[in-house]
UniProtKB/TrEMBL annotation:
Keywords: Kinase, Membrane, Phosphoprotein, Transferase, Transmembrane, Transmembrane helix, Two-component regulatory system
Name under which the protein is recorded: histidine kinase
Pfam (any one): HisKA
EC numbers for this chain: 2.7.13.3
Domain of life, source organism: Bacteria
Signal peptide as annotated in the record: none
Segments forming domain Histidine kinase: 112-329
Catalytic activity: ATP + protein L-histidine = ADP + protein N-phospho-L-histidine
Location of the protein in the cell: Membrane
GO MF term list: phosphorelay sensor kinase activity
Amino acid sequence: LEGSAFLGAIRVTVSQAPVERILAGLKTRLMVTGGLALVLMTALSLLINKRRMEPLAALAKKMDQTTAENLTEQPLPESHDHSETGMLVQSYNALLTRLDSAMRRARQFSADAAHELRTPLTVLRGETEVALRWTRDPEEFRSTLESNLEEIDRMGRIIEDLLLLAKSEAGELPMEKTQVNLNDLMRDLYQQGKVLGENKGIAVTLELPETEVVQVMGDELRLHQMGLNLVTNGIKYTPTGGRVRIKLQCESDQAVIVVSDTGHGMAPEHLSRIFDRFYRIDKNREQESGAGLGLSIVKWIVEAHEGWITVTSKPNEGSEFKVFLPRISPGKPRNTAS
């Protein structure tokens, strides 16, 4: 421009080929990179899904192969990532454990019942067959019926004890714990044991603390059952003219119930198994009736009260059972001796 006159123009041209080549290269790289990223993401997603589905697949396989005989043989491996799948596997393993425990208890109960009811049923059948086979006078029939009634009572006691143990193992027997005065409880056991002992010519004695009441938190009915089992066990295996002693004492923060006798006693090899279900010493099995459940019930009751029980014994000298229970604050007794 010169003044207002237009003199000419200059045109500058730049080739776009380099730019287009650069853009084309970028486009290619983006497509390759995007494709590779898509492939990697797809592969990673499939891998993650596979790893997440493996426990479910294993769970489905385990469920197909599970029977009553192999509930806990090969539990599924558990992860600790707190994922939904991991929690499901843990819950399933826990379920199998509970089912296995229930199945074992059911099988144990069936086996125990069959084992212990076989003998009284055989006696009932044998005596009934003999009574029907031969002509007898009314007195003989009466004797047979009385014997049958004794066997029926025995079967009833066995079934009650088996049900008690089964419920206790299943946690279906709650304890109604209150403050229990062991001094009074021991007096009740002494009165019952005295009557039972007199029938067999056995002296039963009682020793209580002179200056305090011994109290525990517990189920009074079960504690009475525990003590009575120990007392009757002592009377059962003590010959005529012997003695059963019931004693209550304190050791530190423990209340100690002692039941000792001058009976047959036990050899050392029997002591570790004396609380096992149905365990009986052969020489006594022939002399005394019983299912061998009493001491198992005693141990369960003691442990349910957070206590423990010990036994010492010598053959032909007698046995001593000690029950240790956590005691609560002592007080003054109403009576100190019996």
